[in-house]
C-alpha cells in the first residue's frame, strides 16, 4: 500500500476496517498475474506538500533553561508523567535540541510552561506583545504540524499538540485546549495508536516485561508526548485532558475512555526505570508511595467523568432510549454513579487521602487536585437534577417555601461545593505560588452552586450561609489569576 502514497516519507498509515483501502488490498491480492498498464503520469509530491524549511529556534540560556525544566517537572509532570525526567535532562545536556527540531520544539514548550511558575524576570521579553504571558516568546516559536499533511505525523508532532495544550489552559485561551487535544487525538489515530485493530503494541505489554520506551508510549496514549519517550503516555493524558476540558466547556468528547484499550501505567517512579546492580528495571521499592499513584487514580476518576458526560449530559435521543419503560431510570443512574464514585474514593492510596498537614508537598498538591476533582464530579452527577431556581417565579407573601427534601440534589451539591472550596483554600495557603491543577473549573463551579443556594434559599428552605464560602472561592480564583491569566474571566 505504501507504493500508492504520494510519497514514502510517511511510512505505514493506519486504515480502519471501513476504509476503502481494505477493498483495494483485497483487489491487489486477487490481481495475480493480470496485466495492467502503468500510469502515463506517475504521482508526485506537489510543492505545497513538501515539508516546510527547518525552523530557527531561539532557546533560553542554559542556566535559565535548567531552571525552567526543573519547574516543569516539579509542577506539571508530577501530575501528568508525560516525560521521563532523566532521559529528557540527558538529551538536553547532550544538546539534542540544537540538532533535532522535534526535541527542540519540546524543549521550548517545556520552558514556556515552566516560565508560568517562575519569578525570574527573564521569562518576560519586551519584544513580545504587551500583556503576553510569561514564556510566550518560546511558546510562539513552535509551529504545529499542518504543511505536510500528506505525510504521516511523527511522535514529535503529537507531543507538540499535547504539551502545547497545557499553555492556553493556563493563559488567556482555555478553549483552545479542546481544539488542540482533539487534533492531537486525530493525529494519533492517523498513526494507528488508537486503533483497536492494531493491538500488537498493547498486547505485547501484557505478555512480557515492559521497556522504558514502551511504558512512556503506553502512558502517552492518554495524552501524547515525546520520542522516544512517548506515544502511549501522551495519549493517555490526551484522552484524560479531552474529557476534563470537554466537561468544563460542556462540549462533546473526542474519544470516550471506554474506546481506549490500554493497561494502566506501571507503578514506578522515574529513577527506578533503568536496571541497576541492585534492582531490576521497573522495580519500585515495595511499601513506598509512588508519584504515579496520582495519575492512576485520576485516570480511574476520569473514566467515571467520561460516562457521566456521555449519559447524564447526552442528547435527548439517548435519554429517551434509556428511559424506555422505566420512570425511575434517572434516579437509578445517579445511584450507580454515586456508588462508582464512592468505590473510587475508598480506593485512593493512603498517601493521597486528604491531609492538610501532609509533610510531602508533592503528595499534598496531588491530594488537593484529586479531591477537588472528586467534589467537582459529585456536583456534576447531581447538577442536572437541581431545580431551575432561576426560572422560578419571584416569591410572594403567599408563596410557601419548598421543603428541603424536594431539593436533595442541591443539598448534595452544596455540601460538595463547600468541601471543594475548603480544600482549594488550604492548598492555596500552603502553596501560594502553585495554583491548583484542574482547580479553576472545580472552584468556580463550587462558587456558583453556593450562589444558587443563597439566592434560592427562600424557596428551597436551605440555610443561606454561603456568603463567606463564596468570598473564599473568589479569593482563591483571584490568587490563581496571578499565575494563570485564564482565571481572570471567571471573576468578572
TrEMBL record:
| Classification via Pfam families | Fungal_trans (PF04082)
What's a Gene Ontology MF term here? DNA-binding transcription factor activity
Q: Where is the signal peptide?
A: none
Start and end of every Xylanolytic transcriptional activator regulatory domain?
177-271
| Keyword terms of this UniProt record | Nucleus
Q: Which GO terms describe its biological process?
A: DNA-templated transcription
Q: Which PANTHER family match?
A: TRANSCRIPTION FACTOR PDR1 (PTHR46910), ZN(2)-C6 FUNGAL-TYPE DOMAIN-CONTAINING PROTEIN (PTHR46910:SF38)
Name this polypeptide is given:
Xylanolytic transcriptional activator regulatory domain-containing protein
